[in-house]
Amino acid sequence: MIRIVKMTFAPDKVEEFIENFNARKNDIRNFEGVTHLELLRDKKNPNIFFTYSHWKSEQDLENYRNSALFKSVWAVTKPLFIKDAEAWSVDSLFNVIPK
User: Fold this and answer.
1) For residue 97, what pLDDT is reported?
2) Dist CA 2 CA 19 (whole Å)
3) How far is 29 from 10, CA to CA, in rounded Å?
4) Which of 4, 32, 53, 92 has the highest count of CB atoms within 10 angstroms of its CB?
5) Residue 72 near residue 62 (C-beta atoms within 8 A)
6) Residues with Cβ < 8 Å from 3, sequence gap 6 or more?
7) Is 74 helix (H, G, I), strand (E, B) or coil?
8) Residue numbers of the chain with a pLDDT score lower than 50
């Protein structure tokens, strides 16, 4: 399962977000059930970011969302938003990897 979260930050809060994400990324990546974690930045709007993560199961994602780790990360991240985060859980239909 893939989880995509779009986050829009106040421009003056972007560096704070990046520093916090960088400090916590290994904890998130090593959480039970996470198989992939990326942080993406919009090319035209540098205060818009996306997390792109792969999970072994929906239950693993729910376990993360109910964890102390998520709550501590979100407590720092959420106040930096200028717009509510948007999130999607999706399934991959085709995975085309170049040779």
Assistant:
1) 73
2) 24
3) 25
4) 53
5) no
6) 51, 52, 53, 54, 55, 61, 87, 88, 89, 90
7) helix
8) none
